[in-house]
Amino acid sequence: MERIVGAAGRHTGLRGRSSECARLDALVEAIRRGQSQSLVLRGEAGIGKTALLEYLVESASDVTVARAEGVESEMELAYASLQQLCGPLLQRLERLPAPQREALEVAFGLNAGPVPDRFLVALGTLSLLSEVSDKRPLLCILDDAQWLDQASALTLAFVARRLLAERVAIVFAAREPSGELEHLPKMELGGLHDEDARALLDTAARVALDEQIRDRILAETRGNPLALLELPKALTATELAGGFGLLEAHGLSGRIEEGFFRRLEPLPTDTRVLLLAAAAEPLGDPLLLWRAAERLGVAPSAAEAAEADGLLTIGDRVTFRHPLVRSAIYNSAPP
Question: Is the predicted pLDDT of residue 282 greater than 90, yes or no?
C-alpha cells in the first residue's frame, strides 16, 4: 500500500487509511498513558493489514515491540507462535512466580517436564508481558493470526481479556479470526474508495490503461490494495487489452499468488533456494537464514535479486512482501 510521507520524511499515513491510522495512533497513545489495549484487524488477503501493522510499529518508536507471525505449517505445534512472540522477552522470566515460570519454561522447550497446565502458561504470559512493560510500554504484534496454533491463540486471547492497567497492547491481524479471538475489539478493513484505488492502480500500471480496462480492474479488485499493485504486473498484455474475466480462473488471492510465482521463475537458482529457506524459517531471523544458506552452499549475494524485485527485505528481520509470496515459494518448490 502506498505511504504518504511528510516533509521531514516521517510516514504520516497510508493512502485511503486515515481513519484506521488515527485509531492505531490512539492505541499507542493509550498504552503510553498506562491503558491496556487489544485489537483485531480483520480483512481479506492483500487488504492492507500488514501495512497497517508496519505503520503502527513505526508510530511507536518509543515503545518495546514484540512480534510473531502465524505459520500455516506450524498450526499443530503447541505454543509455537507464543514462543516466537515471547522469546526476546525471556530475560524477565526469572521475576515470575515459580509455578508460572516453570510452566513457560516447559512450554517453550527450555526445560523438560510433563505437559504444562494451560492456565499457568496463560498466567505466566500475562505476568511476563506485565513485567516487560514495567520499563517501557509494550506493543505485541501478531500477524497472520488465522494461522496461530490453538494453544497460542487461547493463551493470547486470555491475556488480552485480562489486561487492565498494564502498559501493554496486543494487536492481531487475521483474514478470518479464530473463535478464540472472536470477542476482542475489531477493526474491519474494506477496500479503498474509488479515488484512492484509481491513484494506486495508476502508480502500478506499466502502461497507460484504457479507461474501460481500468474500470474493470477496479471493479474486480474491489479496492484491494495488494491486488491493485500486483495485478498489473501479473496480467499478460492480452489480458490487459481485453480487460474482462481477469480474476475468474483463480480468484483474487490465487491470481496474486500466481503473479508472484511468475516473478520467481526468472530468478537464479541460488536465489530461489535462498527464498525457499527463508519461507521455511518462521522466525524471520537473518542469522538462521545465513546459517542455512551456508550449509546449502548459497552465497549471501543470492538475496540481491529477490530484494531488487521487492519479494523480500533482509534487515533486522527477514520480511516477505506479503504472505502470498511465502505460499508462492512453497508451491513453486519441487516435490
Answer: no
